[in-house]
From TrEMBL:
Taxonomic classification: Bacteria, Bacillati, Chloroflexota, Ktedonobacteria, Ktedonobacterales
A family per Pfam: Response_reg
Residues covered by the Response regulatory domain: 3-139
Record protein name field: Response regulatory domain-containing protein
GO biological-process terms attached to the record: phosphorelay signal transduction system
């Protein structure tokens, strides 16, 4: 199964998602804060974007700790759109499969999908089947269907 990242600031929702995903056979890394998630996915990032980009492109990109990221758009300290823009701007995470799991407005979801058109979307509240189907679809779209 897959290694799933979950960026969700609501502890109850995070626990529910993690339990559902583990029941389906996935491993889950829960990120409670946007910076924690970005630090894990972009550990080499610094304030000098040009230097970082050249350092990354000159060597093989390291394996990401997750195969897919479930991203809430309403987060503390930084919006999900901000997180999304950081992820899409970095070559290491540009093609990371994403699932927006949110109660955001239609315009917020449309904005997120304009940045990451291949991302999936599930609306809170969601069912077990919706969550698992979104994971399967996101992995299949990126050719990661046989992920660990």
């Amino acid at each position: 199964m897959a290694q799933v990242g979950l960026l969700e600031d609501n502890a109850r929702i995070a626990k529910l998602c993690a339990t559902m995903l583990q029941y389906a056979g996935h491993q889950v890394i829960v990120y409670e804060h946007p910076r924690e998630c970005l630090d894990d996915l972009l550990p080499e990032a610094d304030n000098n974007a040009s230097k970082t980009y050249h350092a990354i492109t000159k060597r093989t990109l390291p394996v990401l700790p997750v195969d897919v990221l479930i991203l809430d758009l309403h987060l503390p300290d930084m919006t999900g759109i901000d997180v999304l823009q950081f992820l899409r701007a970095n070559p290491r995470t540009r093609s990371l499969p994403l699932i927006f799991c949110t109660a955001a407005t239609a315009s917020e979801v449309a904005n997120a999908l304009s940045i990451a058109p291949q991302a999936s979307f599930i609306e809170k509240p969601f069912t077990f089947q919706e969550l698992i189907s979104a994971i399967t679809s996101a992995l299949d779209m990126n050719g990661n269907g046989s992920a660990n």
